[in-house]
Amino acid sequence: MQRNIDFQLSRNLRRVGHLDIPGGGQIVVDGDTAYIGHMKPPHGTSILDVSDPAKPRLVASIEPPSPHSHTHKVRVVGDLMITNVEQNDRHFLRQADALPEIRAELAGGLGRAPSPAEVAAEAGVSEDDVATLDAARARGYDEGGFRIFDISDRANPKLITHQKTHGFGVHRFDVDANYAYISTEVDGYIGNILVIYDLADPARPQEVSRWWMPGQHLAGGETPSWRGYKNRLHHALRVGDELWAAVWHAGFRVLDVSDITRPRCVASHDYHPPFPEPTHTVMPLPELIDGRRIAVALDEEHDHRRGNLHGFMWVFDVTDFADIKAISAFDVSEMDSPWSRAPGRFGAHQFREKMDGTLVYATWFSGGLRVVDLADPFQPNEVAHFIPEPLAGEASPQSNDVDVDGRGLIYLLDRDRGLDILEMTRP
């Protein structure tokens, strides 16, 4: 017999505004303006006037360089806007690299050229996919990098430069008034590494340093102890003279950048395995709690297999970098969302990358937004949540990113479609 479950879609949060907009990977709010990096071309970057949160209004939009790129991340500092440029569908298209070897091995065994059907079966894709992958390999990709725009006139952004990097380009990144902390592929390395650029002249970003994990620098004679792209930089966030770097299936690292020309790893913590989902974001709380330094990390729900743990939130005591300890965790039950087993992802993804207290604003894909108080880091306490209903045509909400403006309004961006503007209904 099926149980009737009363799902509470909202607690201590209410919607004050909504915009039906193509899905996005990141939202940043600066004053009365919100910036959205969209997941899929032809949608690139949208700039919204949110001075009236009940009626957010599109004022400008920028397309990616071509249909082969997406620009799903965005940052703003002063009158500069920076977006990534990354190969669209990069994980799928990267399979094209294996096709020549697959064809050669099949030809050796068959004594003839393999048919498209045989190649598809060996590669684990469809025949149509083989044609798509062959076309992508023949076309190549050289747009990866990041773009810098002058947004002194928010309604008329102007491209200053398109800085090329390598491979499928830039994924996530952080910026401040002086530097961009870029996660990108680089020739001679396997997987994304950190490249720091000086932005003193926005028209000519200058590389000042690099950092990578031992094993990534193939051209330097290093050999990875892992297979493929399992361990790599997802992105690094600057906190004072430190960069807090999530390195996917290798946990996280803390880098000392007091000398910006020589990033130096000063802390390392890896909990993979046994935990299956990769480390997406990590950073410390801004103030000590009872004399202890506390950090929070989210593991992204990525390739979840039923029976495995979902991606969830970690709380670490990082007072002593030589003895980092997990002290608690926060999770959302599948029973807490009507869409937890609908098509799409369910577990954790990302939290707001600005810490100004003990509240963590975390997106949980079909679990919506979770506001978690870490005032007692040993007992994370959810103080509010909001699960948007999926828009027409979508199987589930996919809450992807979140930001909070100076008025305390919360901006919840869906990966597939839609933006909600929320406010807390209690202090």
CATH architecture heading of the domain at 271-427: 7 Propeller
Largest β sheet strand count, sense and barrel closure:
5 strands, antiparallel
Shape: globular
Q: How far apart, in Å, are the first and last alpha carbons?
A: 41 Å
Structural class by secondary-structure content: mainly beta
Low confidence ranges: none
What is the total tally of β strands?
A: 30
Q: What is the helix fraction of residues, given as a range? A: under 10%
Percentage of β-strand residues:
35-45%
User: How confident overall, as mean pLDDT?
Assistant: 95
- Per CATH, the superfamily of the domain at 271-427 is YVTN repeat-like/Quinoprotein amine dehydrogenase
Number of helices: 4
Main sheet: strand order: 1-27-26-25-24
Describe the structure.
- The protein is mainly beta and 427 residues long.
- Among the domains are: 28-37 and 46-164, Arc Repressor Mutant, subunit A (Orthogonal Bundle), CATH 1.10.10.10; 271-427, 7 Propeller (Methylamine Dehydrogenase, Chain H), CATH 2.130.10.10.
- Helices cover 9% and strands 41% of the residues.
- The chain contains four helices and 30 strands.
- It has helices at residues 90-93, 99-110, 116-123, 127-139; strands at residues 10-11, 13-22, 24-30, 33-38, 45-49, 57-62, 69-70, 74-77, 80-87, 145-150, 158-164, 170-175, 179-184, 193-198, 206-211, 231-239, 242-248, 252-256, 264-269, 279-284, 294-299, 313-317, 325-330, 350-351, 359-363, 369-373, 381-386, 399-404, 410-414, 417-424.
- It has a five-stranded antiparallel β-sheet, with no helix packed on it. Strands 7, 8, 9, 10 and 11 form a five-stranded antiparallel β-sheet that branches. Strands 2-30-29-28 form a four-stranded antiparallel β-sheet, with no helix packed on it.
- Helix 2 crosses helix 3 and helix 3 crosses helix 4 (127-139).
- It is globular and about 75 Å long.
- The mean pLDDT is 95.
